[in-house]
Amino acid sequence: MAPRRNIPPSTAEQGFGGLLKGLGELVERISALSEQDGINQNGSFTIKGLGERAQGVYGVSIRSGIGGVPQVEHFGNLRATATGPEVAEAREPLLDLFDEDGELVVVVELPGVDEADIRVTLRGAVLALETIGARRFSRELALPGEVEQVFVQQYHNGILEIRLRKVAS
């Protein structure tokens, strides 16, 4: 039998609040690591005893931007709040935005979603995406400039592509 370890009171907080605080610290550490070392990780977890009500997904994607500056993007349904981490009902999907000649192209990963369950709306320079059904995703994106309020979208094998024509200035 392994000897018992004395755990300092500061790290042995009890109850659900302590668990959420620990998850929040984990999210912060993963974010710090992703910004330093350039990682691309994701995963899921379930809090024992709470079933589906507390299933969390968290991931980070690091890409090299212009001039080699890393771009860190978080995705999943684990959110940091003032009261600690929170597991949201809808996941935040991984998304890429490309500025091409005369248009913006948004590419979104929506694994396991039926095309009929996708809702895309455009309000000014904010693109909102939401899915309904078994796999729920939600995301709002502030666009870098004005676009026409009509867009074209295509969906194939879990990848949604949205093309928005820029307003000529």
Could you explain how this protein is built, in words?
The protein has 169 residues and is mainly β. The chain folds into two domains: 78 residues, no CATH class; 77 residues, Immunoglobulin-like (Sandwich), CATH 2.60.40.790. It is 14% helix and 50% strand. It is built from one helix and eleven strands. Strand 5 and strand 6 form a beta hairpin. The chain is globular, with a radius of gyration of 20 Å. About 7% of the residues have low confidence.
Integer tally of domains: 2
On the 0 to 100 scale, the average pLDDT is: 75
C-alpha Rg, in Å?
Answer: 20 Å
Main sheet: which strands, in order across? Answer: 1-2-3-4
The gross shape turns out to be globular
Structural class: mainly beta
Largest sheet: 4 strands, antiparallel
SSE succession: HEEEEEEEEEEE
Quote the distance from N terminus to C terminus: 74 Å
* Strand residue percentage: over 45%
Percentage of residues assigned to helices: 10-25%
Total number of helical segments?
Answer: 1
Q: Compute the number of strand runs.
A: 11
